[in-house]
Amino acid sequence: MHVTIIGAGLGGLTLARVLHVNGIPSTVYEAEESPTARAQGGMLDIHDYNGQIAVEAAGLMDEFRGLVLPGRQAIRVLEPDGTVLHEQGDDGTGGRPEVQRADLRQMLLDSLPEGTVRWGSKVTGVQDRTVTFEDGSTVDADVLVGADGAWSRVRALVTDAKPEYMGMSFVETYLYDADTRHPEVAKAVGGGSMFAPGQGKGIFAHREAGDTLHAYVEFTRPLEWFDDLGKIPAEFDGWAPELTALITESDTEPVFRPHYALPAETRWERVPRVTLVGDAAHLMPPNGEGANLAMLDAAELGQALATKDVETALAEYEEAMFTRAAHTAEDSEEMLKSLFGDEPPQKLLDLLIDA
Questions:
Q1: Quick one: angle between helices 310-340 and 290-307, nearest 10?
Q2: Three-state SS across the chain?
Q3: How far apart (Å, rounded) are the C-alpha atoms in residues 343 and 261?
Q4: Which of 177, 175, 191 has the alpha carbon at shortest distance from 69?
Q5: Does 339 have pLDDT greater than 70?
Q6: Is the dihedral of CA 176, 205, 82, 72 positive or negative?
């Protein structure tokens, strides 16, 4: 058996690694030209009930622990005027440790045999299990796995479901050298994550490696509202300056990130020797679980392929994945209500205290 994986994100690379550990060859095809072709986003909290299980299956737990940023599990919840409503420190138990996404991806890349990832391989079409690339070349896959994210090309082989805009978006900003250049902002964010929810909007941030602050300015608005990002600061008139500075003092141009999701009930009938992992299978709005689910999908799929015949492995994997994704979608809806519902920030506080 040889497994063809489309997409060298965390899901695709975790699958390739787990297959390698179990003696199954694979090739990962990635559209980007190199591992450093673009920035890989900010931090991820990798949970002990899903993401870390995948890391363990990949045999990389020691390497993973070396990437963890101490103290980043701390949480602060602020009122728009800067009043601290809730604060909890990093208890050091490692239940949800934070790592940089780029470092996690590189860890997985370093664990694979040379040549496993074929960079610069942009997929332009998939027919049955024949994959066509931009340069005109093709690959006939023995087993084909779509790990190609929100706008997956492989998805069309198993379902007609397409991502839909969820009515929410965020705009990303960064403040560098914040402890020295923006000490009040750094103090407001604290050592981990900060949430300042409001009615239909909010400012959220976390401390990345060093003293970099990465902020997400969130809105529930239609897509066309974001045609002019210059009007965003005015939406926060009256908010504490240590919060609005995350917008007005950004060291980078704001980056628009609309939230899309597949219908929550998305599932499909078994298609021989083809399946999906991660966002290709169950795209959801950002909820802290996306990377974790992709990695766990990949680990469970890799282990199933190593111990069962192909069709049994794919069928059992998909059934477990569908169930897990449905439960996570329900939890995600509750979290979004806590951030943007009728009673911010009380619902968020209730959620944190119950957890």
A1: 170
A2: CCEEEECCCHHHHHHHHHHHHCCCCEEEECCCCCCCCCCCCCEEECCCCCHHHHHHHCCCHHHHHCCCCCCCCCEEEECCCCCEEEEECCCCCCCCCEEEHHHHHHHHHHCCCCCCEECCCCEEEEECCEEEECCCCEEECCEEEECCCCCCCHHHHCCCCCCEEEEEEEEEEEECCHHHHCHHHHHHHCCCEEEEEECCEEEEEEECCCCCEEEEEEEECCHHHHHCHHHCHHHHCCCCHHHHHHHHCCCCCCEEEEEEECCCCCCCCCCCCEEECCHHHHCCCCCCCHHHHHHHHHHHHHHHHHHCCHHHHHHHHHHHHHHHHHHHHHHHHHHHHHHHCCCCCHHHHHHHHHC
A3: 24
A4: 191
A5: no
A6: negative
pLDDT at 39: 76
Single pTM value for the model: 0.94
pLDDT value of residue 312: 98
Is the pLDDT at 334 greater than 80? The verdict is: no
Token look-up 């920030």 returns: 345
- Residue 96 carries which side chain, given as an amino acid letter? R
Average pLDDT over residues 338-351: 69
The confidence score (pLDDT) of residue 353 equals 65
> CB neighbours of 84 closer than 8 A, spacing ≥ 6?
76, 77, 78
Question: Cβ neighbours of residue 136 under 8 Å, at least 6 residues apart?
Answer: none
**Positive or negative torsion for Cα 306, 308, 314, 315:** negative
Contacts of 135 (CB under 8 A, 6+ apart): none
Main-chain dihedrals φ then ψ at residue 278, nearest 5 degrees: 65, -145
Tens digit of each residue's pLDDT (9 = 90 or more) over 14-55: 999 999 999 999 999 999 999 988 877 789 999 999 999 999
